Amino acid sequence: MARDVGSVQAFEEALKGSRQAVAYFWADWSEPCKQMDAVVAELAKQYPAVAFLRVDAEKVDALTERFGVETVPCFVLLQDGAKAGSLEGADPSALTQRVASLAAAAPAAAAPAPAAAAPAAAPLGVQQRIRSLLSASPLLLFMKGTKAQPYCGFSGRVVEALRATGHGFDTFDIFADEEIRQGLKEYSNWPTYPQLYLAGELVGGCDIVTEMAASGELQQLLDEKLGAPAPKAAAAAPKAAAAPAAAPQQQQQQPAAPAAAAPAAGGAAPAALAARLEALVKSEPVMLFMKGSPEAPRCGFSRKVVEALRSEGLEFGTFDILSDEAVRQGLKEYSHWPTYPQLYVNGELLGGCDIVLEMAAGGELKGGVDEMLHRTT
């Protein structure tokens, strides 16, 4: 079975007994990691000669930095202690193939295992899977997270816009399937998420959907294509959104209104802390809560976000959450975002490392920040 290692020393000790190893970088907040836990456990049974080491990416910063881990789940393959390859994302078939190749250098007793794993490497083609998903739902949102718990503010805003129309809709968590996450970008020629589809056709991403919602075009389009929503469904949507027991995570996850999230923080922490957090997130137009400082980041995720912001020429303030435990814990409740770094624009949560890096890779980071600065001014 996989072995948890909580320090560099424990990691080095674990490597001594095996020529082949897989370092599995994970985080407890990541849904894809929960999926891959079962895959790793099964692979550990199939390949006893390979050491599987689970590393909490946020707690063992030295290892995260050493292997250049930027997202979770991430798998680093090691041969005689040296990096032999890596794999990012939740892709069971790809991981199985990589481990099989790594284990080929193991003792002969382990060699037959790859043949047993071969059937898992032939899933449906990703384009076919995408078409099947679209045909199964007239209104489908590919998003980060779920309706009840969006994992980014952009996904949360689209969910709110759709709820307001009274129409039912389905969602697909792209964090749960790396093949869909990457394949849909090519299918739609749209590089970012969320993506909303109506009758199999791409409507657009967050900016387009929220603009259409503000102008009334979204309601009109959905009514024309899907028919007017039943009065009961239309009446139920606002009630579900407002009821704390029905959708607390979704309501609080929405980063568009930090002021609305403050009571949640106040309920779990003193009112003075909630007020301090609100002041901190608004202390600079662009504010990054990170581990360490821009000159000396203390985790790879924070360093990557700093590099992304600097590469776009964006000015930003920072706060070292390692210097203040009350802020470190309280901000997680305030924002309902469980990890660091956290980037805020005019007091709104933009997101964490994965969102910032994805926007940067898609050429949307500066434009997204500028849009939020103008919209919230």
CATH class of the largest domain: Alpha Beta
Give the helix proportion (percent range): 40-55%
Name the CATH superfamily assignment of the largest domain. Glutaredoxin
What is the total number of structural domains? Answer: 3
Number of strands: 13
Approximate shape: globular
Low-confidence stretches: 107-123, 232-269
Strand order of the largest sheet: 1-3-2-4-5
- How much strand? 15-25%
Overall residue-averaged pLDDT value: 81
Radius of gyration: 22 Å
Structural class: alpha/beta
Largest sheet: 5 strands, mixed
Short description:
The protein is 49% helix and 17% strand.
Written description of the protein model:
The protein is of the alpha/beta class. It folds into three domains: 3-121, Glutaredoxin (3-Layer(aba) Sandwich); 126-252, Glutaredoxin (3-Layer(aba) Sandwich); 255-375, Glutaredoxin (3-Layer(aba) Sandwich). Helix content is 49%, strand content 17%. It contains 18 helices and 13 strands. It has a five-stranded mixed β-sheet, with helices on both faces. A four-stranded mixed β-sheet has the order 7-6-8-9. A four-stranded mixed β-sheet has the order 11-10-12-13. Helix 14 crosses helix 16 (325-335). 41% of the residues are buried. The model is unreliable at 107-123 and 232-269 (pLDDT under 50).
